[in-house]
UniProtKB/TrEMBL annotation, chains A, B:
<dbReference type="Pfam" id="PF12840">
    <property type="entry name" value="HTH_20"/>
</dbReference>
<feature type="domain" description="HTH arsR-type">
    <location>
        <begin position="1"/>
        <end position="91"/>
    </location>
</feature>
<dbReference type="InterPro" id="IPR036390">
    <property type="entry name" value="WH_DNA-bd_sf"/>
</dbReference>
<dbReference type="InterPro" id="IPR011991">
    <property type="entry name" value="ArsR-like_HTH"/>
</dbReference>
<protein>
    <submittedName>
        <fullName>Transcriptional regulator, ArsR family</fullName>
    </submittedName>
</protein>
<dbReference type="InterPro" id="IPR001845">
    <property type="entry name" value="HTH_ArsR_DNA-bd_dom"/>
</dbReference>
<dbReference type="InterPro" id="IPR036388">
    <property type="entry name" value="WH-like_DNA-bd_sf"/>
</dbReference>
<dbReference type="GO" id="GO:0003700">
    <property type="term" value="F:DNA-binding transcription factor activity"/>
</dbReference>
Length: 106, 106
DNA sequence: TTGACATGTGACCGGATGGTCACATAACTT
DNA sequence: AAGTTATGTGACCATCCGGTCACATGTCAA
């Protein structure tokens, strides 16, 4: 299993993406805290966090008996850079900003 | 199945990512042309292209009996924007550019 | 219009994946 | 030391997914 394979497989599950959303909103949470946000047993959440950590999308730090989880944006940026070059990036951000502006006006 | 679920599921397979790489290098290819680049039957490739198209990562245009395939970067950029805010984007691009520079020097 | 070419469909099978549970270790508290 | 809290492990099962095949449709060229 290659590194990028681990990243994309990790992102393929909606529960794991939701965990990233939670960490994007606020970093440094424990398993138990994250578990309370999902309708799933602790074991399921722990398994998902392990997949995210092995993919490098989440990094952890131990503090006593607690394990704190942090979002790592680097692999996400690398996905972006794989299929969007500098020129396209400028076009696409302009387009998306325009779309957002139009939606706000309506 | 939500839109973003289709996108991430589509990206979870290495053959499909390779197809995106091929289209990133050169757009507007037919199924038969793409098939010759993979070690897989035509049916397998067609199935993967269908998944990519339903996810909006690939858009197609018919030309007679041929179907031309094009890469659509919009869903990729949206993945980026989901977990990387403007401030982090600046930090991360600086970091990645630095890393690239160091690797080129060594 | 006949044959070759490009693509599409539905069924099938082996392997991978998501979620749970019983059980276990380690650390804080009193 | 004892009870509670936070996390870790391995097995299990239902379901999904990747790839192939037999078969079919539509298009071009002579």
């Amino acid at each position: 299993m290659t590194d990028d394979d681990r990243v994309f497989k990790a992102l393929a599950d909606p529960s794991r993406r939701f965990l990233l959303d939670l960490l994007f909103a606020r970093d440094g949470r424990t398993l138990t805290e994250l578990e309370s946000e999902l309708e799933m047993t602790r074991f399921g959440v722990a398994k998902h966090l392990r997949v995210l950590e092995e993919a490098g999308l989440v990094v952890t730090r131990r503090s006593g008996r607690e394990k704190l989880h942090f979002l790592n944006p680097v692999p996400i940026r690398q996905i972006h850079d794989r299929w969007i070059d500098k020129y396209t990036e400028h076009q696409i951000t302009t387009l998306i900003d325009l779309k957002r502006t139009l939606e706000e006006e309506s």
